[in-house]
Amino acid sequence: MQNQNESLLDIILLLFKWWKQIIGASFLAAVITAGISLMLPNYYEASTQFYAASPDLAQPSPLGNMPESKRIYGNDNDIDRLISISKSNTVSNYLIDSFDLYNHYEIKEDDPKGKYKLLLKLEKHFEITKTKYDAIKLSFEDKVPETAAAMANATRNKVDELARTMIKSSQENLLNAYKRNVTNKQLQYDAISDSLYYTRNKYNIFNTQSQGEAFGSSMVSLEGKIQSYKARISYLQKKTDVPQDSINIFKAKLEGFKTQYKNLGRNISEYNNGYPKILNFERQLKDFGDQLNIDKERLKQLQAVYNSEISAIHIVEKAETPVIKSRPKRSFLVIGIAALTFVLMSIWVIAQDQLNKSDWRKKISEA
Q1: Are 270 and 212 in contact (CB under 8 A)?
Q2: Most exposed of 46, 101, 254, 323 (fewest Cβ within 10 Å)?
Q3: Neighbouring residues of 144: CB distance < 8 A, sequence distance ≥ 6
Q4: 209 in a structural domain
Q5: Is there a domain that residue 212 lies in?
Q6: Which residues pair with 216 in a beta bridge?
Q7: Which is higher by pLDDT, 211 or 230?
Q8: Which of 121, 72, 77, 113 is nearest to 96 (CA)?
Q9: Which stretch of DSSP H or E encloses residue 127?
């Protein structure tokens, strides 16, 4: 323990012996760093924050009386999608063209590696992150404060535009699918309607319910008349004082009723043959009509949503022109380099002293 204390004391005494050189070197490094840092350009950072909007907002409400709650803000997948869009070549090319970044960053456009260098430069000054509150923070830094703010806002707007384009594309695909579905169902509905019309004409059935009731009442009425006239004729034939012409009139009426009864029987037979077919077509027509009306209403909703203006983001804060530089932090650089020089000089003094004590030159010559 005593040896350790003595060694520590020796080091302190050694550093104290060289303190002028150590402090001088540190001061010189600080002065040089300060001079160099003054030559570095100032960069200004502008940031904009926004939330991802939920795709539910771009979907029509369900049909019915019960409203369905919708999410206002997007989830992690929606946030990741916006971040991916912001890092896409489409956004980069938009910024390059909009802000003439080749000239802005002084990169030759005809250089084979010019685009690569420009993208590296752009990536260096661009940052997008998710905050702890699940918002998206998009930042740009530039030597010109106004340019930094303009690029941040332009990037945010372009991300919103591309995200909306993706949503619109999905909506258009869904809308076209619904249009095809409605068209096909309309064709099927028309085919069933034509079949129903043909079957009604074939079997002379125009109203299944009222016509069936009419047939039944007519059948009962004719049967009653036939029986009544048969009884009258039989009674009159037994009378000797009844002219034969009167009896013949009743017989003619009876034959007319029989003919009506026979024709009615044929009509009822046709009705019975056609009734199941017509009933089946009517049910199909009703089912298809109900579903077709639902699909048409859904199509109207999709069309209305497609025509409406939507946003893929909720803006919290627009980028404003910064007034305070983001870098370089000159005081940190000067203090850091001075401290590093102090440590390195101290290590060099201690190492030099140890080498002198071990007489390393003599050992090397003897070897």
Answers
A1: no
A2: 323
A3: 44
A4: yes
A5: yes
A6: none
A7: 230
A8: 121
A9: strand 126-130
